[in-house]
């Protein structure tokens, strides 16, 4: 059975005091839910966030990590460092990492392997650009992103994978994929995984939608049968909005 998940990607927002304040508000306002709730503050605030949420069900996850175990990689963070502060899940492949930091499928495949080798969970992001959708190439792009980064994994690794389909044209733009567009792509993703592995793996993996999810559109998107929740950027920075989105699942 796959899990419902709502995750907040805080990106490069919130200093230490603001992080603490938002987490306190979130923990206090969290509605009763069967969904797993996750937040991804910046690296410097992760350890504090883990401490603040010690008695909460909200999980703290990381926005990124390096593929090497340790060494001369100035400014980078390893899986062991995350694990040492109690962070067990990492977002990899976010479109901003791909676009601004040139993380390609090959690098992402290494990062995924490095995280899984350490028994971390991976929230793997992928999705097409606007031109891909306009030219009708979006299914091919998504299939190749999945294939290049994930399809050489052993079947057993898939219990540690969460997928987040995030069409790049919908991230931070206010433009959302329609619930039908999200469902169509999520169903395609499950079909692609069924062909590469089997229907059990495809049926058990949680596939989140990300891209301008807000309280006003969350319910309709989350209502689609192959959408298992959301990865939320902008709207996760306001406790009331994030809580409303969690409530919508
Ligand atoms: C994201 O960054 O993963 C995201 C979905 O952002 P937003 O919700 O702001 O579009």
Structural summary, described in words:
Helix content is 42%, strand content 14%. An 8-stranded parallel β-sheet has the order 3-2-1-8-7-6-5-4. The longest helix has 18 residues. It starts with a strand and ends with a helix. The protein has 249 residues and is α/β, with parallel strands linked by helices. The radius of gyration is 17 Å and the shape is globular. The chain is built from 11 helices and 8 strands. The protein binds phosphoenolpyruvate. The site of phosphoenolpyruvate has 13 residues, from strand 8. It is found in: Cytoplasm. Keywords: Cytoplasm, Gluconeogenesis, Glycolysis, Isomerase. This is Triosephosphate isomerase. Homodimer. Its main location: cytoplasm.
